[in-house]
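Task card 7
Instruction: Convert sequence to structure tokens.
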Amino acid sequence: MSTVLETFDRWKSFLAERVNAAQKLGVSDEMISKLAYEIGQFLDEKVDPKNDQERLLKELWDVGSEDEKKTMARLMVKLVDTK
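Output:
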């Protein structure tokens, strides 16, 4: 995971590949957003940000309510969604 997080572009590409794969398997947008939220929780608790963009996302995540974090997760999915 550490090489994926080295640059924000690499992270977006990694996330886009996973979102597209899930969509091809028929995973609903709601489930993809839920998984993105869970990944965000994991990253917040276990992974130090590797660049300025990730640091900003962590700081926003840390001050956000649960609903705001879910919105951030949906926005990250929307950012990389290439359907």
